User: Fold this.
Amino acid sequence: MTGQKIDGLEVAKSVKERIRMAVSELKSDGVQPCLATVLVGENPSSQTYVNNKQKACADVGITTKDHKLDDSFSQEEMNSLINSLNKDDTVHGILVQLPLPSQLDEFATTSIISPLKDVDCLTPSNIGLLSTGRAVLKPCTPSGIMELFDYYNIDLQGKDVIIINRSNLVGKPLYHLLVKENATVTICHSKTKNLKEHCQRADVIITAIGNREKFVLTEDMIKDGAVVIDVGIGRQEGKLVGDVDYENVIKKASYVSPVPGGVGPMTVAMLLKNTVTVASFSKGIGPKT
Ligand SMILES: NC(=O)c1ccc[n+]([C@@H]2O[C@H](COP(=O)([O-])OP(=O)(O)OC[C@H]3O[C@@H](n4cnc5c(N)ncnc54)[C@H](OP(=O)(O)O)[C@@H]3O)[C@@H](O)[C@H]2O)c1
Assistant:
C-alpha cells in the first residue's frame, strides 16, 4: 500500500484564500496590512526567499516595505532601523531574513523587534509565550507543519513523534506545539545515538537537516504507516532535495510531505497569516484568520 502525498501547495492555497478575505476585511476597517522585510548582503538563497515572501504578500493584498542593505551594515545601523520600524505605524510586521553576516548578532537583532510586530516569533517574550502554550504569534515553519497535520486530520494525541533538528527556528518551537497537542516528543540532533532506532519506533518523523551527505531517511528506517514530514532543503545536481528518499519511503509510510511542495509553501502562508494577525492588533481588532 502506498501512502498519501502531503500537498503543501494545496494546503497553502486554502490558507491563502482565508488570508485574502481577512485582508479585505481589514482594509474595509481602514487597515492596510504591511510587512517590512530586511535583507542584509547578497546571499542568493536569502534573496530568493525574500522575493518569494514579497510576491506572496502582494498576491493576498499585503503591502511590503523592502529594506535591502549592504553587506557591511553595522549592528548600530541595524538597531536604529529596527527601532524606526517598531515606531512606524504604517508597518505592522517586521521580517529580518536570517542568516545575517557575521558582524551582526542574530539574537541581539531579533530581540529588539517589537513583540507585536514579530511575525517570525523570534523575540524572547513570544518564545516564552510559545513555551507556556499561550502564543498568539507562532513561528512560521513549525506552525505550517501543524497546519498540515490539521488539514489531513492526522491525530497527534499519544503519538511518538521525533524531530530531527534542535534549532531555534524549527525543532525547539515545534516541540512546544506538538506537546500542546498531547504528542510524546523526542528531539534528535547530530550527537544523538542510535538515530535509526529512534526513527523506527516513531509514529511521526519530522526531519530538518538539509544535507544528504550527512543524512537521508530511507524506508528501512521507518515503521509501517509512519507519517513523515520533510523540512530539509538541500541541492543535488542543481535540483532542490529534502532529507527523505521520497519514492521509496512513501511505499511504506501513511503520509509523506515532498520537497519541493511540502513544508516550504506552508512557511510562506504562515508568514502571511502572522502579518494579518499583527495588522489586526494595530487597531485592537482580534485575529481575523
Ligand atoms: N521548508 C522550509 O520552509 C524550511 C524552513 C526552515 C528551515 N528549512 C530547512 O531545514 C533545514 C534545517 O534548518 P535549520 O535552520 O534548523 O538548520 P540548522 O540550524 O543547521 O539545523 C540542522 C539540525 O540538523 C541536525 N543535524 C545535522 N546533521 C545531523 C545528523 N547527521 N544526524 C542528526 N541530526 C543532524 C543538527 O544537529 P546539531 O544541533 O547537533 O548541530 C541541527 O539540529 C535546512 O535545510 C533548512 O533549509 C526549511
About this structure: The CA atoms of residues 152 and 243 lie 21 Å apart.
